[in-house]
Predict the structure.
Amino acid sequence: GTVVLVRCIPLSPAVGAEVVDFDITHALPESDQAELRRQFTKHHLLLVRGQELTQDDHDRFVGYFGPVQENRGGDRAGYVTNRGDDPRSLFPEMRPLIWHNDGAYGPHPGIATSLWAVEVDPNAAPTLFANVAEIVERLPAALRERAETLRVLNVRDTEFNRTYERVPLEELLSSNDPDRYVTYEHPVFFEPPHFEGRAVIASEQMTAAVVDLPPEESDAFLSELYAHMYARDNVYEHRWKQGDVVIWDNIALHHSRPAETGSESRHLRRQCIDGWYTPEGDLLDWSLTRRSLRAPSEQ
């Protein structure tokens, strides 16, 4: 029979699996690519450790899941790095990053994001991941029932990269610059295109308010929701090691970085996908993801 090269062990009770005895530098047959995607939709995050790879290897690995997204400059990758002078840095200010999922200020949040630890010091700032898909069924019944009827307004400030705070609703409403903020209304529970179930799309960083609720009531609802979503037992903390490759489901998970990155080297190559390959090998096209909404800092 076929020898399957994909073997996974869970990383934490909340989320994630490590793909063990796996070499990213070798191309995979279709059957193993499909198995990787199956494990991804099961665990929502896959980690491969100790890799010595090239950019082409990273491109090929991420491409098993869907077409690699290109920015307007035609680049297939950017860098999340605290090398202050690196022109490829996507986020020049490496401040704390509160909980969010990328692109939730538009109709199509990204399906998956990958980071490859090109160079990291042992004490580099970790990345945290919260499982906002499985939590839907674990919410208290009254809270879940209420969430079913509500919509949230998600916002992106294109002028400043507000990684450390949400955009206050008053600021959005009083702004006289119509092009500064990108906004989108979503139901609290978002239906992903690539797996059964739903995921919470309200987040600390992106959600300015619950639509049609008074501010105090909106904040109280969101606080109660976040208490469940971001509880420690629903979170996996990834401490980076050199050569790590992580790919995670950007809809099923929210991510955060708890602190400024400091001076410890933390140079991560970042890629996203613009669609998803179904179990049958068809392309589920998601190329609207942020393409028309991309802020100048992301180009």
About this structure: Confidence is low (pLDDT under 50) at residues 289-299. The first helix runs from residue 30 to 43.
